[in-house]
Write a sequence for this structure.
């Protein structure tokens, strides 16, 4: 299961909590804090980095 699959499978309550964690920056450095693609320097705005993360295997506690 990828991170995207895990998000798609969330209940409304889980999705609301996930969005709240993103809004407060709870996923910042550990998700986007390093360079994942050849087009950026680890910027938070990089869609390629977001796509990369969505396609990675999901962790149990994420």
């Amino acid at each position: 299961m990828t991170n995207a699959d895990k998000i798609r499978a969330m209940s409304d309550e889980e999705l609301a909590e996930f969005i709240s964690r993103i809004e407060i920056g709870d996923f910042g450095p550990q998700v986007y804090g390093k360079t994942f693609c050849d087009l950026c320097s680890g910027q938070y705005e990089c869609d390629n980095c977001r796509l990369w993360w969505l396609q990675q295997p999901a962790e149990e506690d994420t």
Q: What stands out?
A: The longest helix spans residues 12-23. The chain has a mean pLDDT of 79.
